[in-house]
Amino acid sequence: MTTGDISRIEVLKGSQSALYGSHAVGGVINITTKRASAIGTEQQAAVEYGSYATKTGSYSWATKSDRAELAFTLSHMSTEGFSAKDENDGNFEADGFRANRLSFFGQYELDTGALIGLNGFIEDSRGHFDDFAGDTPASAGNDFTDRRNIGLRAFTQFSTGAVDHKLDLTHFRSNRVSTSDTSWPAGATYFNGTRDKLAYQGATDLGAQARLVFGADTEREKVKGGGAAWMTGAFAELGWAPSDRIDVTATVRQDHHSRFGDFTSGRLAAVYRAREDLLFRAALGNGFRAPSLYELYGPYGDPSLQPEESLSAEIGVEKRWGDLATLRATAFYLEAEDLIFYLEAEDLIGFNGTSTICGQPFGCYAQVPGQSRRSGLELEGTYTLSDRVELGAAYTYTDSSTSVGWAGVARHDVTLFATAALTDALSGTVSVQNVADRPDGLADYTLANATLSYDFGTGHEAYLRVENLFDEEYQTVKGYGTSDRALYVGLRASF
């Protein structure tokens, strides 16, 4: 997806199935598109050009009144790109990408006080890729995927007495055609899938210190020529504040999958504010994920796959020193049973003693037997050096137990950054990331990025962004190419 219409991204880590169902086995990403921030009409436009002949542009229009709201964004991106298989391994063909996207949002408040609304998006894209054998003169430019994604959501919100209600009906459709001359299977492969969901959520206060949220949903996934699956679930979440220093949330959910049966998930989280500037938090939850229809019935699928199950736990502390500094530390643990992962032929030899599985010579989706575990520690902090300069750092230590799948994560990952207001109009940010102790023979690397922006003071801003400042040669995933040093210039305007 492109980012021209995004205003906010929130990430919830850990198993979240108790509230959000099967798809939230490892976390939740909530993406909010652009809307009017106040009553009136707002417009935003942005253009950018840079390395690899990369061009992006977007235009947003949003209006808001006392009872109505309407917004839409049109965006475009195109790039010649770099080789999907690393050019340092002898590949020479640039693999480009282009996409056009339209998103919209609208809602209206009825005389009864109820809200009704509709939002959605449509995106068309083409992305080039490399086949398993890599680039050859005969295959250059012949491997690409055309994709059209459509998402729609109709919703209403209303209250009856002490209960607030929300009802959502969503539809998502993905049509993909992958064309390749030498990959297996050669020629064109199709995947046309839909996901339809009806969800209800209610909420009511149970006195001054507790609130109950409850709901139910039903979802149907279907693939043309590849089967269908139903998922129905119900949940309840109780938020309780026994004092002004403690918040506790407990959630339980029951799901039924048409193929895999019943699953119960739960989550317990608590926050203790020892002082205004010091808090402790902890969470424990389990989750599950049924294999997707593509993993079951796609060209690299395996119909015998079983659901993943997960258990996650974390405990953390946060400390603030006024506006001067912040420090956060979190210890985490995550385990998965029957982890699903795409295994290539070279992994399969060590995995099950053969280079073929599911009758496919290049690999497929498979189940990692038993438990896969990951644990570690996250540290992050900021320090205000002056009224113009802020420093920050983040470090993650990760220990993974599996030989495939999760083992691709580095043991050490540290990032340092500095943000400075050089003048009243000119500001800049520099970040340096070091990734070390990596598996699969992957080399450690250090990556630096920098951005310089100038605010004209009239809602217009120009910027220069440099990615991979020191032209590091590196891979984030074994065999896959990454960008050389790249420069981008852009202009943003609000009016």
From TrEMBL:
Q: Where is the TonB-dependent receptor-like beta-barrel domain?
A: 50-469
As for family, the record states: Belongs to the TonB-dependent receptor family.
Q: Its topology with respect to the membrane?
A: Multi-pass membrane protein
Concerning PROSITE patterns, the annotation shows: TONB_DEPENDENT_REC_3
A GO molecular-function annotation: siderophore uptake transmembrane transporter activity
Q: Where is the TonB-dependent receptor plug domain?
A: 3-28
Keyword Heme: yes or no? Answer: no
Tell me which UniProt keywords the record has, alphabetically: Cell outer membrane, Membrane, Receptor, Signal, TonB box, Transmembrane, Transmembrane beta strand, Transport
- On whether Transport is a keyword of this UniProt record, the answer is yes
Instruction: Name its species.
Output: Phaeovulum veldkampii DSM 11550
Q: Where found, per UniProt?
A: Cell outer membrane
Q: Which Pfam families match?
A: Plug, TonB_dep_Rec_b-barrel
Q: Specify the protein name.
A: TonB-dependent receptor
One GO process term, biological-process aspect: siderophore transmembrane transport
Any one GO CC term of this protein is: cell outer membrane
The UniProt entry, under SUPFAM superfamilies, shows:
Porins
